[in-house]
Write a structure and sequence with these properties.
Helix content: 55-70%
Largest sheet: none
Order of helices and strands: HHH
Distance between the termini: 37 Å
Strand content: under 5%
Structural class: mainly alpha
Shape: elongated
């Protein structure tokens, strides 16, 4: 898969950019929670958050579409987190 990074490889600049956007979103969420902001500031931050969510969603769709076997990821997640025979969920 061309867009994937193995654990031994260095991340590409695009991946670092997407990671920085995620960190920015978490920082803004924390900032909004801790500090009391006026309505105009909250409106600007809400707009920026909406644009950021759109970019992250588009990145997800493009990455998923270019994956060799996109459904393998979801199947692996469900297999690893579902109880096996004789096990019960707590």
């Amino acid at each position: 898969m061309e867009g994937a990074t193995n654990f031994g490889e260095h991340p590409r600049p695009y991946q670092v950019f997407m990671l920085s956007l995620c960190i920015y979103a978490i920082f803004v969420l924390a900032f909004e929670t801790i500090f009391s902001l006026d309505a105009n500031t909250l409106q600007v931050l809400a707009f920026a958050d909406t644009v950021l969510c759109g970019l992250l969603f588009i990145d997800f769709v493009i990455s998923w579409a270019h994956a060799d076997k996109p459904m393998d990821v979801s199947e692996t997640v469900f297999q690893n987190h579902s109880p096996g025979h004789g096990e019960q969920m707590v």
